[in-house]
Design a protein that fits this description.
- The complex is a heterodimer of chains A (about 260) and B (about 210).
- Chain A has about 260 residues and is mainly alpha-helical.
- Chain A has helices at about 1-20, 25-60, 65-80, 90-100, 105-120, 130-140, 150-155, 165-190, 230-255.
- Chain B is mostly helical and about 210 residues long.
- Chain B has helices spanning about 1-15, 30-55, 60-80, 80-95, 100-110, 120-125, 130-145, 150-160, 165-175, 185-205.
- In chain B, α4 crosses α7 (about 130-145) and α8 (about 150-160) runs antiparallel to α10 (about 185-205).
- Chain B is globular.
- The chains are: A mainly alpha (about 260), B mainly alpha (about 210).
- Chains A and B meet through α1, α2, α5, α6 and α7 of A and α2, α3, α4, α6 and α7 of B.
């Protein structure tokens, strides 16, 4: 996916520039940007990242993550009704979200993977995502980060007068996105397309206290009331979506493995 | 400590003191003032609070800070190839007039939801690659100036979204889940909402 996007930008730029006669400008920009990437972006970023990573290390060492985790636990218990409160999966999820909130990316990923492995133990259909997994991942992609460290560092590296100006807006935006994540995951899991096969021990209609998700943001689809219990079409289309998706996933996965 | 900063924040919101001159006049509503105050105070608060909290927990503050900071260099070096790839591509694209071309094609559609075309490359790259998006954001900030509205919108957007596809790939890959059901859609809806909210919020606060 990223491959095509990148290719389209580079080739499209050259073609478009040839058409409009701006080839020299494209060449000089390409060379200029390669220099800028290292000298004006990466190097200033090193200092700023060092400052924040140092601070984060202190937070981690002081057990701030655990303190935050204990505050998050009651919320998560309501969001994940299918996960027993004392299951190790709950502990890992709580810690992962706490790490994400503090911006401890390096700590968050291993914890998230552990949470996924524990959630998979509760999975009656190995190879198929459970509702809890989907909600957990939606929450992860709508990450609530208390301080947008990297974005601020970029502004600061370019000598912004006020690099911290975005803290408030980013916090509010990220809260909205977390609410959306939970709402959309909870609504989508009831669609007949995405429902688990009928043998699933947890009936989709019975779980998920809807009062936990704020009704503020409404995703495109209206909530479809649960239809009949047997749903062959649903499982098939689920496979189709997954097949398309795993194709789209191939690239980033390979790229990110160092 | 917490109280000290809460009081400071309260004073800012109450008096509407805007001594840094962020462009908004004294007529700004209390909501805007609260957000601006939060932005100005959050970082100094954390810079003071993390070490203090750690020291109270008997952490050797200086040594641990240095240990953590050492990673900063590795992070900086690790993202260089991604930055070069993305900055060169987006720089070429802009120099060729690609952004104007995009805005002529998609402008009317995007303006329906109030989304600026300037931010479209960032929105497209963000769910796919974190370092790539960092490159696109940097280019945006460089082109328009670090205190411009576009730069702040972009930074807010970057700070409030995640690399959706990367997260899904890694997490589901780790447990061998192939049928991901609604996780992709939930993630993408979340991204779209976060981006729109970022744009609207920034218009409201900085516009």
């Amino acid at each position: 996916m990223l491959n095509y996007l990148w290719l389209a930008m580079v080739v499209g730029a050259v073609l478009l520039a040839g058409w409009t006669g701006r080839l020299e400008s494209v060449t000089s920009h390409a060379l200029e940007m390669a220099r800028v990437a290292v000298l004006e972006v990466a190097l200033p970023l090193v200092g700023l990242m060092a400052l924040w990573l140092g601070m984060m290390r202190l937070a981690e060492r002081a057990g701030l993550m655990r303190a935050l985790a204990s505050a998050l636990r009651p919320v998560l218990r309501r969001l994940f009704p299918d996960v027993p409160a004392d299951h190790p999966a709950m502990g890992a999820m709580v810690l992962n979200l706490a790490a994400n909130m503090l911006g401890l990316g390096n700590a968050a990923t291993p914890l998230g993977l552990r949470a996924m492995r524990e959630l998979d133990r509760l999975n009656p259909f190995p190879g198929t995502a459970t509702n809890a997994m989907c909600t957990f991942l939606a929450l992860n992609t709508g990450s609530v980060q208390l301080v947008p460290v990297t974005a601020m560092a970029v502004l600061a590296a370019q000598q912004a007068r006020e690099p911290t100006a975005i803290v408030g807006t980013a916090l509010l935006a990220t809260l909205c996105s977390a609410v959306t994540a939970v709402t959309s995951a909870k609504l989508l899991e009831r669609l007949r397309w995405f429902r688990l096969p009928a043998v699933a021990p947890a009936a989709p209609g019975a779980e998920a206290g809807p009062q936990t998700a704020a009704p503020e943001v409404d995703p495109a689809e209206p909530a479809v009331p649960p239809a009949g219990p047997t749903d062959l079409v649903g499982t098939q289309s689920g496979v189709g979506v997954a097949a398309v998706f795993s194709g789209a996933l191939g690239n980033p996965r390979l790229e990110w493995r160092r | 400590m917490l109280l000290f900063f809460l009081v400071l924040w309260g004073i800012r919101v109450w008096s509407g003191g805007d001594e840094t001159g962020m462009g908004t006049s004294g007529a700004a509503g209390w909501g805007v003032r609260a957000l601006q105050g939060l932005s100005q105070l959050a970082v100094p608060f954390l810079l003071a609070w993390f070490p203090l909290y750690a020291a109270l927990r008997r952490v050797r503050v200086y040594e641990e800070f240095v240990t953590g900071a050492r990673e900063g260099f590795e992070v900086g070096v690790r993202i260089i190839p991604y930055l070069v790839a993305m900055l060169v591509a987006i720089g070429m694209f802009r120099a060729a007039g690609g952004i104007e071309w995009l805005s002529r094609g998609l402008g009317p559609l995007l303006s329906l939801v109030g989304f600026p075309v300037e931010l479209l490359p960032l929105a497209l790259v963000r769910p796919l690659s974190g370092s790539g998006a960092l490159g696109v954001l940097t280019e945006l900030v460089r082109t328009h100036g670090p205190d411009s509205l576009w730069a702040r919108m972009g930074a807010t957007m970057y700070g409030s979204t995640e690399t959706t596809f990367y997260v899904l790939a890694v997490y589901f890959g780790a447990v061998g889940v192939h049928r991901v059901r609604h996780a992709v859609w939930a993630g993408l809806i979340t991204d779209v909402v976060a981006m729109l909210v970022s744009v609207w919020l920034c218009r409201w606060v900085f516009g």
